[in-house]
Amino acid sequence: MDIFKFGGASVKDADGVKNLANIVRDYKKGELLIVISAMGKITNKLEELTKAYLSQSDDTHAIFDEIKHFHFNIIEELFQGNANPVYNEVANTFVEIDWLIEDEPDSNSDYIYDQIVSIGEVVSTKIVAAWLNETNNKALWVDARNYIQTDNTYREGKVDWEKTNQIIQKEMVPLIAKNIIVTQGFIGGTSENYTTTLGREGSDYSAAIFASCLNAAALTIWKDVPGVLNADPKWFDETEKIPQLSYHDAIELTYYGATVIHPKTIKPLQNKGIPLFVRSFIQPEGSGTAITKDSNPLPVPSFIFKVNQALISIFPKDYSFIIEENLSNIFELFHQHRIKINTMLNSAISFSVSVDDNEEKVKKLIESLSNQFTVKYNKGLELVTIRYYNQQTIDRVTVDKDILLEVKSRHTCQMVMKNKA
Ligand code: ASP
Ligand code: MG
């Protein structure tokens, strides 16, 4: 069997839902499980709603109304009115949130976030399942929260693989034999049946979990690009599709910030040798990118840009060397402040790192580093990572730039830079 994952962009309107139905048209029961994200940019809107509710803003109800209208418009367009049972199912899902936001927030804000934001996926899957049933495919809506079992780290649920695997084997396998399954990405459930989310953009990861536990033949992620590109079209005019990637290269690219696939997606697939295809829902006949074990493709140079970087340079006040002890103190502080290091370099008495410039967090980190170290920093920088670099590719991205930091390994070059004054 296959797993298909459709992201928000693929189901952003009624036409998107119809297009999805066309893509899965020829599949029969027993052959397919479909994982779907919230429609369009609804997760952002639901985050806004959560914020408004937590701060008891006057906008709370207006934001929620906007979310409801967005979905009801799609339902009305698909089903020519509101007579289909899905209309009431979706209305009932919204009522639960109406009740929640009626009272003042009295629990943990991350918990509240998950209860609210998760409904994006609940509603999108209800609409898609209803549409498949209305058209050519019998589909069964399944609640992912009963299968993806997590701890209670809200907003970042940690998957209990053993439990998840057991329950999928025991209870989902028989369902799949009789149906095409439609379920949610991004959400899971705790042992006490509370909803958790797996972190933003986590639907790819959900799809990989299902693929792994079901020993799927393949996972296909349907995107609005023809496959994995060698650069983000947001930053680059000329991009090239990479036809084949190894798991290893895919992990490296996502680790350095390529946003095409969620970084946690590859490992479960690699562990079971399940191929991952990235294909275009706009041109479903295209071959996309195949990410597999033994592909030994010609390396295509890939570029990953991160903007809004801060370069932090750390010098021991007593001029001691940057060796194990200093490094472990430094790493401990980064860990405590939950700041991810994007690239780093050390010399005898200095240690430099580039991080996403989250002002609040970086300020606190620098304060705590300052006890032991002299700290200097630069803001407003770009970090470029080139995988399979050569001089030509470096020249291409460094025109009119000053390079503040450069780190090279055999296959990867990272440069922190700013525009020339
Ligand atoms: N809807 C969630 C998000 O936008 C999960 C996902 O799209 O993967 O973050
Ligand atoms: Mg999304």
Automatic annotation (TrEMBL):
SUPFAM superfamilies: ACT-like (SSF55021), Carbamate kinase-like (SSF53633). This is Aspartokinase. The lineage of its organism: Bacteria, Pseudomonadati, Bacteroidota, Sphingobacteriia, Sphingobacteriales. Pfam families: AA_kinase. Residues 4-280 form the Aspartate/glutamate/uridylate kinase domain. Its EC number is 2.7.2.4. It catalyses: L-aspartate + ATP = 4-phospho-L-aspartate + ADP. Keywords: Amino-acid biosynthesis, ATP-binding, Kinase, Nucleotide-binding, Transferase. It comes from Pedobacter ginsengiterrae. Pathway: Amino-acid biosynthesis; L-lysine biosynthesis via DAP pathway; (S)-tetrahydrodipicolinate from L-aspartate: step 1/4; Amino-acid biosynthesis; L-threonine biosynthesis; L-threonine from L-aspartate: step 1/5; Amino-acid biosynthesis; L-methionine biosynthesis via de novo pathway; L-homoserine from L-aspartate: step 1/3. One of its GO terms (molecular function) is kinase activity. The keyword Kinase applies. Belongs to the aspartokinase family. It is an enzyme of class 2 (transferase). Gene3D superfamilies: 3.30.70.260, Acetylglutamate kinase-like, Aspartokinase, catalytic domain.
